[in-house]
Write a structure and sequence with these properties.
The protein is mainly alpha-helical. The chain has one domain. Helices cover about 80% and strands about 5% of the residues. It has five helices and two strands; from the N terminus they run αβαααβα. It has a two-stranded antiparallel ribbon. α1 crosses α2, α1 packs across α5 and α2 packs across α4. The longest helix is centred in the last third of the chain and has 26 residues.
Length: about 120
């Protein structure tokens, strides 16, 4: 149940960011929910592989290269989801940063409500 609620919060964050950022578009709430699911799957399967494969460059850049990996995950989600469009690397990077911040804020509010 908690996972489902986090997916819904992520979908809401995707919709909000699509309205704010000019380089990101989402067709509707169902597309945003599908984007949230696809990003969760990519973060669970593909991201760990990319982190391991790019570990040397990640260490050299002191972890900054992880931002590039996050942008790659967003662009992969753009490729797989029909109603989701990101125009380029820059917007994917900005979207991933803002999505992480929105999710952190929303999840912290969720934790405060339980305590």
């Amino acid at each position: 149940m908690k996972f489902l609620f986090k997916l819904i919060l992520s979908a809401v964050a995707v919709v909000i960011l699509a309205k704010i950022l000019p380089g990101v578009e989402v067709d509707g709430y169902l597309s945003a929910l599908i984007v949230a699911v696809v990003i969760a799957i990519l973060n669970a399967i593909v991201k760990p592989l990319l982190v391991v494969l790019t570990l040397p460059i990640t260490v050299v850049t002191l972890g900054v290269f992880l931002l590039v990996i996050n942008a790659m995950i967003i662009l992969l989600a753009d490729y797989f989801v029909i109603g989701f469009d990101v125009t380029g690397w820059f917007w994917a990077l900005i979207f991933s940063l803002l999505l992480s911040m929105f999710q952190s804020i929303l999840y912290s509010v969720l934790k405060k409500d339980k305590n």
